[in-house]
């Protein structure tokens, strides 16, 4: 497994054996802390300098899942902000049900606290949903959205089929939850609560998507275990000016499986967004 900053185009972990064994640890941050917001303590960390990029992780995970991406984006001249979604990782939650809109409000609160006026947002799975909701609700704060591996209504998901790769990812999430969470013995209730949200949310219509006015890349893996390819195509058609990108040879876990290739696609998107919006800084 490469050390932070040494991820190469050649590194592959297609079966997630390295991830299950070792995770994908973040490098030492320039700054980190917790923000109290709306019944939760939200953990964040920042790295580097330049145009701001926020990385939003997937459901049941935490910011450490971006361990292969942070060094690459810092090296390409970005200020990178990672946030543990409420109830995930080092962040806490209250007794209310999960919602993507509530988690989106946490992101804006962290941006306000750190005086980040505008950022590009790279979202993975649930994090992608949060990112697109931010683009719809607070477009002045979002330079662009890299939307990887997610649905925007329940029709976009496949019937769940367990696989060894999914099982290894889940096992890593369980270990990390026990190590990081303020409620380390509550993994099953956490999974149940996040699962309840996923079954009923999000519920955005084609009309809602048509109102999004920031640059968007809809990014779908060739072998995604959870999201229908036709749903990704529908999203790209429904969001004005959206680009559809297919990542070959990988699944829902592409940032871990082939990080060099994933990072290249992210950087290309950020370069396009920066060129289109020189005020993003």
TrEMBL record:
InterPro entries: AB_hydrolase (IPR050471), AB_hydrolase_1 (IPR000073), AB_hydrolase_fold (IPR029058)
Residue ranges of every copy of the AB hydrolase-1 domain listed in the record: 51-157
PANTHER family named among the record's database cross-references: AB HYDROLASE-1 DOMAIN-CONTAINING PROTEIN (PTHR43433:SF5), HYDROLASE, ALPHA/BETA FOLD FAMILY PROTEIN (PTHR43433)
Protein known as: Pimeloyl-ACP methyl ester carboxylesterase
Phylogenetic classification of the source organism: Bacteria, Pseudomonadati, Pseudomonadota, Alphaproteobacteria, Rhodospirillales
């Amino acid at each position: 497994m490469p050390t932070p900053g040494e991820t190469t185009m050649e590194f592959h972990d297609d079966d997630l054996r390295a991830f299950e064994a070792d995770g994908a640890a973040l490098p030492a941050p320039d700054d980190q802390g917790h923000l109290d917001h709306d019944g939760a303590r939200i953990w964040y960390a920042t790295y580097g300098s330049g145009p701001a990029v926020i990385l939003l992780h997937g459901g049941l995970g935490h910011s450490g899942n971006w361990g292969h991406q942070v060094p690459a984006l810092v090296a390409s001249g970005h200020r990178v902000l990672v946030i543990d979604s409420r109830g995930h990782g080092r962040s806490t939650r209250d007794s209310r049900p999960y919602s993507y809109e509530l988690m989106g409000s946490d992101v804006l609160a962290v941006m306000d606290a750190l005086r980040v006026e505008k950022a590009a947002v790279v979202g993975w799975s649930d994090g992608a949903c949060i990112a697109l909701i931010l683009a719809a609700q607070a477009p002045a704060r979002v330079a662009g959205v890299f939307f990887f591996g997610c649905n925007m209504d329940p029709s976009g998901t496949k019937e769940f089929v367990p696989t060894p790769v999914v099982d290894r990812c889940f096992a890593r999430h369980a270990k990390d939850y026990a190590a990081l969470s303020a409620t380390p013995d509550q993994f099953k209730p956490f999974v149940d609560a996040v699962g309840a949200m996923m079954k009923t949310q999000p519920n955005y219509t084609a009309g809602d998507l048509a109102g999004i006015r920031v640059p968007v890349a809809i990014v779908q893996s060739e072998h995604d275990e959870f999201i229908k390819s036709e749903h990704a195509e529908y999203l790209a058609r429904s969001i004005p000016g959206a680009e559809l990108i297919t990542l070959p040879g990988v699944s829902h876990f592409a940032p871990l499986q082939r990080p060099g290739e994933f990072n290249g696609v992210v950087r290309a998107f950020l370069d396009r967004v920066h060129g289109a919006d020189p005020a993003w800084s």
